[in-house]
Amino acid sequence: MMFSVTMLTPVPVALLSHEPVHRFVDAFAVTIITGLLIWLPVRRQRADLRLRDGFLIVCSFWVVLGMFGCVPFLVGDSFGLSWTDAVFESMSGLTTTGSTVLSGLDAMPRGLLYYRQQLQWLGGMGIVVLAVAILPMLGVGGMQLYRAEMPGPVKDNKLTPRITETAKALWFIYLGLTLLCGLAYWLAGMSVFDAIGHAFSTVAIGGFSTHDASIAWFNNPLIEALAVAFMVLSACNFALHFAAWRSTSLMVYLRDPEAVGMVLILALVSVIAIVTLWLAGTYASFDTTVLKAVFQVVSTGTTTGFSSAPFSLWPSFLPVLLIFISFIGGCAASTAGGMKVIRVLLLVKQGQREVARLIHPAAEYPVKLGHRAVSGHVVEAVWGFFSIYVALFAMMLLLLMAFGLDQVTAFSAVAACLNNLGPGLGEVAENFASVPDPAKWVLVFAMLLGRLEIFTLLVLFTPAFWRR
Question: Does residue 362 contact residue 329 with C-beta atoms inside 8 Å?
Answer without folding.
Answer: no
